[in-house]
Amino acid sequence: MRKLENKTAIVTGGSRGIGANLCESLAAAGARVVVNYASSEDAAAEVVSRIEAAGGKAMAVQADVSKSADVTKLFDAAEEKFGKVDILVNNAGVVHYKTIQETTDEEFARVMQVNVTGVFHGMREASRRLVDGGKVISISSSAALMFLPTYGPYCASKGAIEQLSRSLAKELGPRGITSNIVSPGPTETEMFLGNNEQEKIDRMRNLAALGRLGKPDDMGPVIVFLASDESGWITGQVIPVNGGTA
């Protein structure tokens, strides 16, 4: 039996990279998946097509998670199509690789608006509308504990997400809703590979005990487990999925 049969999952930032893989992994486990995207409509449609071709159920919904009204609209669409929401995966995020000295007000604000305010909007809506026994899973980064140059605002945003998640776990625990964090290491995504020089990519690869960068499909099994009833006694935790990166 598939672990997530009759469950509905929303994945923010689900059109590309880790998010696209998470959507397909959740669907393969039986979930009906809402693929959220901000601007990549074609990519989101492709994710939906792949899920449906494999026998799953999915829909794409445009929403900018940094806008509260958009997140409300996202949940509205999920409930209208599938009747309820059981799982929220807060995956949408942006990064700017610049030193603190070089980072502009606009760049800093954008990282915080998407990575922190966007997750806050998702958590707030989930706390109001997730079914009892539901799951909130938020994506952080192992970079939050590595204190690397040019990662300052990004690391700050991920640290904030982890603290929000722990508080949410306490608040929603009486309803049987869990809130956990998955913390990937450097991963072969368009965002990481396209914004870094080869020397830095090689250096980050060598930090992993397993000697490679992560792949988006390394994350799927962990997300499916945390979204399933099997993880019911795990909440308020940060789960590193990073190949021993330190």
UniProtKB/TrEMBL annotation:
Residues 7-187 form the Ketoreductase domain. One of its GO terms (molecular function) is 3-oxoacyl-[acyl-carrier-protein] reductase (NADPH) activity. PROSITE patterns: ADH_SHORT (PS00061). It is an enzyme of class 1 (oxidoreductase). Gene3D superfamilies: NAD(P)-binding Rossmann-like Domain. The keyword Lipid biosynthesis does not apply. Belongs to the short-chain dehydrogenases/reductases (SDR) family. Keywords: Oxidoreductase. This is 3-oxoacyl-[acyl-carrier-protein] reductase. SUPFAM superfamilies: NAD(P)-binding Rossmann-fold domains. It comes from the Bacteria. The keyword Amino-acid biosynthesis does not apply. Its EC number is 1.1.1.100.
